[in-house]
Design goal:
By secondary structure, the chain is mainly alpha-helical. Helices cover 75% and strands 0% of the residues. The protein is built from seven helices and no strands. It starts with 9 loop residues before the first helix and ends in a 5-residue tail after the last helix.
């Protein structure tokens, strides 16, 4: 006897649904964390040098006071909620699942592409102070490990951090491209529209 996952398109639909759920819930958790961030959000460990703890607190204050980051966190919550709704419609095999999936992917791609621009804007708008804070944090970490301070970077550290976040966003865009490919699959369409199984 064939199991429920032996129907054509069932495994791909399940994978799309699970991926959208994971992306949606983690995005929502990240958005809520940014919204709840306050200047006292970062608590230094007991072994952190005083200058490193002060730099971490200043960095948290800089992030917490940015109204643009708060607004972007709300956009993250909305695009993440669309992913969760889409995943539920795929799980329930609703006829509107493909529409919800496309809308969720469009919103997520727009949010992620905008995030890349936001990271670079935030880094360049706060560059002198942000670079100095990141250098102080690097020196404190080296002091904790008993190593000499790292040499000054030729590239602004804030732009390095923005580039790292952009790499993560680039990976997300790749996952969204794979999801979009799955949404265009004839097997997934047939399964969701209940033409099979």
């Amino acid at each position: 006897m064939a199991g429920p996952l032996s129907v054509r398109g069932a495994k791909a639909t399940l994978l799309i649904s699970l991926t959208m759920s994971v992306l949606g819930f983690t995005g929502a958790a990240n958005g809520l964390a940014v919204l709840r961030m306050e200047p006292a959000y970062v608590q230094a460990d007991p072994g952190v040098p005083e200058d490193g703890a002060a730099a971490a607190a200043e960095l948290a204050t800089l992030l917490a006071r940015s109204p643009l980051l708060k607004g972007w966190a709300v956009a993250n919550l909305l695009s993440s909620a669309l992913l969760v709704v889409a995943s539920f419609t795929f799980t329930a095999r609703r006829r509107t699942a493909l529409w919800w999936g496309k809308q969720a992917l469009l919103a997520s791609v727009a949010f992620t592409a905008g995030s890349i621009a936001l990271y670079f804007w935030f880094a360049s708008a706060n560059d002198p102070g942000l670079s100095e804070l990141l250098a102080r944090l690097a020196n404190a970490e080296a002091e904790m490990r008993g190593q000499p301070p790292p040499p000054p970077s030729e590239v602004a550290p804030s732009l390095v951090i923005a580039s790292m976040f952009s790499c993560g966003s680039g990976l997300l865009l790749g996952v969204y491209a794979l999801l979009a490919r799955g949404l265009r699959s004839e097997d997934v369409r047939a399964f969701v529209m209940r033409e099979t199984g």
